[in-house]
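Hey,

Quick one before I head out. I ran the complex with fe (ii) ion overnight. Inputs first:
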Amino acid sequence: MKNSRRNFLQKSAIAAGSTLLFPNAVGAHNTILKEPFDQKKKRALRIAHITDCHVIDNAACINSMKRVYEQLNAMEDKPEIIINSGDIIMDANYKDLNHANKLWDLWFDLSKDNDIPIHYCPGNHDYWWPESNDKNVLEKAKAENPNYDLGLYLSRSKTAAPYYSFEKKGWKFISLNSMGSWYGLGDVQTNWLISELNTNTFSCLFSHVPIISVAPLLYSVNRSDPKEIRYPGDQHKDAKALKDLFYKFNKVKLCLSGHIHYIDAVEYLGVKYICSGAASSNWWEGVLDEFPNAYTLIDLNTDGTTEHKYVFYSE
Ligand SMILES: [Fe+2]
């Protein structure tokens, strides 16, 4: 989400206070999860999905992120990979480059004892532009500074490309860049995705912005006149085209996202879409509406089905 909306949200959530109630919550301390979530299914692998960490140098963030990694790494039956779907640092848009690099340094410091491989996709706040309104300064950075746009994210996360795929335990994982055409993939990435979907392997996609989610609608309803709300809002603007591709190739079983900082799961035409809230909840300033700080554990089964549990890790 954009900064102006974020600032408004921070103020409004603090002013309103929040009551924490969430069904199907899994307290982290009683969640060692030694067995497959569904005993009748054969699990291929377990993953953790964490999103919108928005790392910043304050006590709430530092203590919480350490806790997340301690919990994940202490699990007897721990996830084999972590999917991080973006907004890794608080914000790199129009920020001093040294400041953005310090947040990345902090990100790696907080995760230095983590043994579980992390796979990333970029969030809108991971794009770097220099701290200036001067068009010439921005044009110069674009022409000369390799950190411009996604450069900083790619170099610091050691991710080879804005979008990529890999396979593990019989599942294909596809990392998408939701900002390929700003809340859409764009033609080049879409053509690449089509080539990736032409497979016999069950696929798990992850993107920062949700492809299909009810959360953006409810987020907007909580803040705007419902008559003003228009589809797709803060979802992928190419959702229909993507939905058609998933239906045609019939191998995408799971799509993971963040961005909204709300939690929901939608099942549509055989694809499960999970928006996993935010590790930072209200950008580390309390709780955003009904959605405390969270991450998600997911079992991917050999038959293409999945089960997930939200972990409200501060409980
Ligand atoms: Fe975010």
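The pocket of fe (ii) ion is lined by residues 1, 52, 54, 87, 123, 259, 261, 278 (CB under 6 Å).

Talk tomorrow,
K.
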